[in-house]
Write a structure and sequence with these properties.
Layout: H1 3-23, H2 27-37, H3 43-51, H4 55-63, H5 71-90, H6 94-109, H7 113-127, H8 136-153, H9 155-161, H10 171-183, H11 212-226, H12 233-238, E1 254-257, E2 274-278, E3 281-282, E4 299-302, E5 309-312, E6 318-322, E7 328-332, E8 340-342, H13 354-362, E9 369-376, E10 379-384, E11 388-393, E12 401-407, E13 413-421, E14 424-431, E15 435-440, E16 446-451, E17 456-464, E18 467-474, E19 479-484, E20 490-497, E21 506-509, E22 516-520, E23 523-527, E24 534-538, E25 549-551, E26 556-561, E27 564-569, E28 577-579, E29 592-594, E30 600-604, E31 608-613, H14 615-622
Antiparallel strand pairs: 1-2, 2-3, 4-31, 5-6, 6-7, 7-8, 9-10, 10-11, 11-12, 13-14, 14-15, 15-16, 17-18, 18-19, 19-20, 21-22, 22-23, 23-24, 25-26, 26-27, 27-28, 29-30, 30-31
Length: about 625
């Protein structure tokens, strides 16, 4: 059984234990189990958090148990934040109330038209300062009653708090009795037993000669089924379980753990790396490659606007940049030549929908550049706030040529990635309209489409030959994993993985695609690609922000945080290095990006792209193509 299966079986066992305790009236023990385990939701605990005004804790508590985001859970979150918004206004805390209203309530309201209507009406009252003061205690009671009704009505949410088990007799007790009955399947006499803790061995009645063969078969079956009885000592020793004899001593393994926080020149020691020895045969010890980027800036590129997203070319010394005004820049970082500049314009207004034309009319034809991606050495795409995607063809040292204008989403395009299928390049996009779409990059036609229950903000894709791994993250931190077939779009419904952190911002694959990392309010973590359970938690991240984390091919993670760049080895959760760059005006969380080889690290300051490099990176910057 794999790790995900073991975890699922463990959770099911804990659910059965809780169900058994509840049916036998042990309510205090149930509460103690909930606190100790922290993985079995309790409705009383959830509602008490709401009644006590601990709304952040209530949402976090709910999120860590939900299996998937549903319409009911969106309503629950919305009205919890709505109550917090009302209470903050009553306390005249306008700044925090605005934060809750625009950053908490608005994204959730997009999940359902009824929520959109309520949000718009509330916005009018908010702008006109006509929201009445609330009776906190009564209003919290009403929210709790509404939340309880939603839990009862929605099957997915209800199953969180009321797991489906056999009605009447406890499911756990039923399974125990089945187990005991199974042990007595060969008994031909009284099936009495003394304990559940030991296997039962049936003592055969005296047998006549003609029953001897049957008795022998029964005894053989008992021995094989119980794991006890006659055994071959050599077989046990071969399986790694040597016998213990008098005067002998056996140690199954000896571990040598290296712990060293110092970094010697030219060496990197992984503080988690252990050298294992078993039966005097040493295991293979791998030394991770050295993180050798310079602490000093080796190249500066001055930009005229704030950078909203940027991406290195796969092989060439090029950086693609987009800006809030919709500007697109292509910088050749190994020369001092003027960058290629493109400005957002509509290429074919006749083909746009009426809704998009209306939105563009409100923004006077302007759109913010939100995301960029290279699809191949000659193709790149830019996603905009008004739902459009523009693709360009680039030929070395020539101005990029416009290729496709795709009306991809109703609302912002939050992320773009590429993959190849059937010899063609596909563009995958996601947005606030809850859609994930794949497009043919040659003609702009939809290749496949998925609809989620919440706005989507991050994509992580890795392709190895015909195998494509894709994860999509929504605003609540729930990840979705579609099964993309090489010879077609989707082979099955996507898997959903609930987050144990609220609203993760980004997902990133390691260079080899074997490991998945998440970055958000809970910090930086590595998660299992199958169960989405946390595997490693990287410390020292204070204020995670989108586009401020990247992973390089050599196995290092860089994060822009606290006005500097923090670096970890992917195999160690201890902060490896903190890089502070002199003479730079940094935002608190600067965006960072590695090139594919990990020889360059670009860091965004106020109006500059600053580059750190190792020896290979310096050679790349100095070589004129």
């Amino acid at each position: 059984m794999d790790e995900a299966g073991r975890m699922r079986r463990h959770d099911e066992t804990m659910t059965l234990i809780k169900n058994y305790l509840e049916q036998h009236g042990m309510s205090s023990t149930v509460q103690a189990l909930d606190i100790e385990r922290g993985k079995l939701p309790n409705l009383a605990t959830f509602t008490s958090l709401l009644l006590g005004g601990n709304f952040e804790d209530a949402v976090t508590y709910f999120c860590q148990f939900q299996n998937e985001v549903s319409l009911a859970s969106c309503h629950i979150f919305y009205f919890i934040w709505r109550q917090l918004f009302s209470e903050l206004l009553s306390k005249n805390n306008i700044i925090q109330a605005k934060t809750v209203f625009f950053h908490r309530m608005y994204p959730i309201s997009l999940a359902d038209p009824s929520l959109v209507k309520d949000y718009d009406e509330l916005k009018i009252h908010f702008e006109n300062n006509t929201i009445p003061t609330v009776d906190v205690e009564n209003q919290r009671e009403r929210v709790v009653q509404y939340v309880k009704s939603l839990i009862e009505q929605d099957l997915n949410v209800r199953s969180m708090f009321y797991p489906t088990v056999i009605e009447g007799q406890s499911r756990l007790q039923t399974l125990l009795e089945q187990s005991v009955n199974w042990q007595h399947r060969d008994c031909v006499h009284s099936p009495l037993f003394a304990s559940l803790l030991n296997d039962h061995h049936c003592t055969p009645q005296p047998l006549h000669q003609n029953h001897q063969t049957l008795a022998t078969n029964n005894l053989d079956m008992q021995a094989s089924s119980s794991g006890l009885g006659n055994y071959d000592p050599m077989l046990l020793e071969f399986n790694g379980q040597p016998q213990h004899s008098a005067g002998s001593h056996y140690s199954p393994s000896l571990y040598l753990t290296i712990e060293d926080d110092t970094v010697m020149p030219g060496w990197t020691i992984n503080s988690d790396q252990s050298a294992g020895f078993s039966n005097d045969i040493p295991s293979v010890v791998t030394v991770p490659p050295t993180f050798s980027l310079s602490d000093s800036v080796v190249k500066d590129i001055h930009v005229t606007e704030v950078v909203t997203a940027f991406e290195f070319h796969h092989h060439l010394p090029l950086v693609l940049v987009c800006t809030p005004s919709g500007g697109i820049r292509l910088y050749r970082i190994n020369t001092m030549k003027t960058p290629f500049r493109m400005k957002f314009t509509i290429w074919n207004k006749k083909k746009l929908s009426q809704a998009l034309k209306a939105r563009l009319g409100e923004t006077e034809g302007e759109a913010e550049g939100l995301c960029v991606a290279w699809g191949s050495d000659t193709t790149f795409a830019v996603g905009f706030s008004e739902g459009l995607v523009h693709t360009y063809n680039y030929i070395h040292e020539q101005r990029p040529k416009p290729h496709l204008e795709i009306e991809a989403h109703s609302g912002p395009v939050n992320d773009i990635v590429f993959y190849s299928s059937q010899g063609e390049l596909k563009i995958v996009t996601c947005g606030n309209d809850r859609h994930i779409k794949a497009w043919n990059s040659s003609n702009g036609l939809v290749y496949w489409k998925l609809t989620h229950t919440a706005p989507l903000n991050s994509l992580a894709l890795h392709q190895d030959g015909n195998k494509v791994q894709l994860f999509i993250l929504d605003v609540f931190g729930t990840a979705m994993k579609p099964n993309i077939g090489y010879n077609g779009p989707l082979d099955s419904n996507p898997l959903l993985f609930p987050s144990d952190m609220n609203a993760r911002l980004e997902l990133k694959f390691s260079g080899d695609g074997k490991r998945l990392f998440c970055y958000g309010p809970g910090g930086l973590v590595e998660v299992d690609r199958e169960s989405f359970e946390t595997r490693r938690n990287y410390n020292s991240v204070m204020n995670p922000q989108t586009k401020c984390m990247d992973i390089c091919k050599n196995g290092y993670i860089a994060v822009g945080d606290e006005y500097c760049v923090k670096v970890w080895n992917v195999d160690s959760d201890h902060l490896f290095r903190k890089i502070k760059i002199d003479a730079a005006v940094f935002p608190e969380c600067p965006m960072v990006k590695f090139n594919r080889e990990g020889s360059l690290l670009a860091v965004v300051s106020s109006l500059c792209l600053r580059f750190l490099a190792n020896a290979d990176g310096k050679s790349l910057l100095e070589h004129e193509s």
